[in-house]
Amino acid sequence: MLFSSSRCPLWALVIWCRTLRHGLAAGLDPTRLFEQQSRSGPAVLRGVAADIAQRLEQGESLADALAVHEARFPPLFLELIRIGEKTGHLEETFQVLEEYYDEMHSIQRQFRSAMIYPVLMYLIATGVITLLILILGYLAGQGRAATTDPLGVGLSGTGGAITFALVALGIPGVAVVALKWLTEQVHWRRQLEALLLMLPGWGRAFLALAVQRCAVALRMGYTAGLSVPKVVRHALEATSNAAFTRGLARAVTLVKKGRPLAEALEASGAPFPHEFQEYVRLGEETGNLPEIMQRVARNYADEAARQMQQAARLTAWLIYALVALLIIVAIFKIASIYLQALGQATG
Question: Which of 235, 238, 208 is nearest to 302 (CA)?
């Protein structure tokens, strides 16, 4: 996901998945692998690794040991490990998860890189206007400025400069903190991603991410030989999006009655693209659903990357427009006041 928890960043998940995959392929015991991670793995997860190693030593399953720390891991991670452990496909599961989170980490880096320059421009513009308000207030006190309010909103002098800086930096700061908190809470994170589906420029990106997760879970569930009701439950839960999980019970009920998977997904009310439902239908009819879902997951990963780049560009232009508006307002306000003063002096 684009929003990764600070308690479990994507790069740390990639390292974990890669290390555990190689360790399992070499025949190492999971308990020993997590003991190693508690000493030399990502620092942010060492405490978790130590606790998991202890729980595995006591006879708990890996899925149950991870469930104790479910707030620290994405739902897809927990869902697929539960599937992999039940069916004896843990090594393949970690490979799939490594590829998935590596892709998500790449998308996250691209987004952050695209946002650096517009955010820097916004900070510079805020600093310039704050300094302008402060300087004009000082000059007005010396009788050397015609205005102390360059924005025309009643902000002048030291107090106005502080107020402007607090508002200009505080509003986006509070928004970032609120988003951070929401993404740390599994329930609210699901609700947030559902809301983002309706946001212009961002909706298609988060739709592609949710569908990709569903495709990955469907592939793993069918490959592992799980019953169709369990596959449906795991797949919809793995989307980590409330818009996809609201109709989960209805979808599970339908497949229990023997209805096709494509029909159940459609009846769930989840906003699956029509082409995705056609791929599911084709996979059921041909018996090649895991192979088709593997290709679909790759396609939607690429689509998510493209849509995220477009969303980043749109957001950047909105920031540029806001910066330009602030500067233009200040310039015209100052110019009009000085032209008025000049007209009165020459009149």
Answer: 208
* 99 in Cβ contact with 21 (< 8 Å): no
The closest alpha carbon to 171, from 319, 284, 37, 308, belongs to: 319
| CA–CA separation, 186 and 176 (whole Å) | 17
Q: Can you give the pLDDT at residue 117? A: 84
d(CA 342, CA 253): 79
Tell me: do 83 and 139 sit in the same domain. Answer: no
pLDDT tens string 15-57? 999 999 999 888 888 899 999 999 988 888 899 999 999 999 9
> Could you give the number of structural domains in the chain?
2
Write down which residue in 74, 99, 124 finishes a domain: 99
Chosen domain end from 99, 119, 149: 99
**Which residue range forms the structural domain that includes residue 67?**
10-99
> How many CB atoms sit inside 10 A of residue 5's CB?
21
Q: What are the DSSP calls for 198-257, one per residue?
A: TSTTTHHHHHHHHHHHHHHHHHHHHHTT--HHHHHHHHHHHT--HHHHTTHHHHHHHHHT
**pTM value surpassing 0.90:** no
Per-residue model confidence as pLDDT tens digits over 93-126: 888 888 888 888 887 888 788 788 888 888 888 8
| 3-state secondary structure at position 122 | helix
Residues 228 and 173 in one domain: yes
Tell me how far apart the alpha carbons of residues 122 and 127 are, in angstroms, rounded to a whole number. Answer: 9
Domain presence at residue 2:
no
Distance CA 160, CA 178 (A): 26
